[in-house]
Amino acid sequence: MRIGLVGFAGSGKTTVFNTLTGLNVPIGFGGEVHLGTVKVPDARIDTLSAMFSPKKTTFAEIIFSDIPGEHGAEHKGLSGKALQQIRDQDVLCLVVRDFANPALDGAASPATDLDAFVTECLFADLAMIERWLERARREKKDALEIAAFEMMKATLEAEKPLRSIPPSQLDRSKLTSYGFLTDRPLLVAVNRSESHAADPMPTEITARLGPLFAAGMVLSASVEAEIASMDAADQKAFLDDLGLTESALTRFIRTAYGLLDLISFFTVGTDEVRAWPILRGTKAKQAAGKIHSDLERGFIRAEVIPYEHFIACGSEHAARDTGHLKVEGKDYVVQDGDIMHIRFNV
Ligand SMILES: Nc1nc2c(ncn2[C@@H]2O[C@H](COP(=O)(O)OP(=O)(O)OP(=O)(O)O)[C@@H](O)[C@H]2O)c(=O)[nH]1
Ligand SMILES: [Mg+2]
Fold first, then answer.
1. pLDDT tens string 65-90
2. Does residue 237 form part of some domain?
3. Does the CB atom of residue 219 touch ligand 1 within 6 A?
């Protein structure tokens, strides 16, 4: 999964990126796009790994991209390069500044920044759709396809993001190559100073999240930086002191998984214990394809043990003997925590 950290110059993206990834890229305006990988913590993988003592344990991963804002231009916005980067992301995390930054204009205006970002994305999508429609009319494209683009245009003109269109009204399988900005799931991260770390989300932001079909969270990059440098016991005490229950990384990952409707299935063995992230609703054959295309092509059946049953039985053998191992066909809908063994033949 790819999460892009986006937003205007000096909102704290690189600071957030460093604390989430444990990297230490230079703070300061502008620069290149940075990439960092984070393991998705999953206690079930820890347990399975302890049972199998495999040569390798592989957690699901998130790749964070730190995408710099525009600098030196007359408008504060997103560069063309940033917009291009954004199109490659699965989830957009907009970091909005809610702390005074003396290097910029001083006072923070998170709601104004959120509006400006949303408007920019709306216009970028609208421009793309208008160009498409112009060409489509000349080239006499399929009427149904034109109708879909007209509908998207009307949505944007009503200042609504494309993600507000329910799946029943828009076949997105044909749209993947366009990378519409307002169709990406959006997480708004309000970044504020340490003294306000545990304050609730500003009401002006909360009020905007519903109509935007976006999720929101509050964090303080400076607090997270401190947490990241502590051992586990100190972390807990520090979080308690500030009135927080968990670090931003944990909240980030959970929110992003929820936004994308991701779940994990597991493969186990003495070679490797591994988590595989998939979209909820994925069928066994396609899930097998995540492991290797041969497993999808030559799919015969899946042997499935739900995680809880596996733990209760204590071993694969015991699960099989007690009837907890189910043999499923290609159309079985994989569930979160399924331990799968794919039988295939190519
Ligand atoms: N007080 C406070 N300052 C912060 C916080 N997060 C970032 N800053 C400061 O804000 C300034 C800009 O932070 P960066 O992380 O470089 O901002 P950025 O969004 O990556 O900026 P660009 O890459 O230029 O788009 C730095 O001086 C940071 O130390 C925070 O949570 N609290
Ligand atoms: Mg930066």
1. 998 887 655 455 666 777 778 888 88
2. yes
3. no
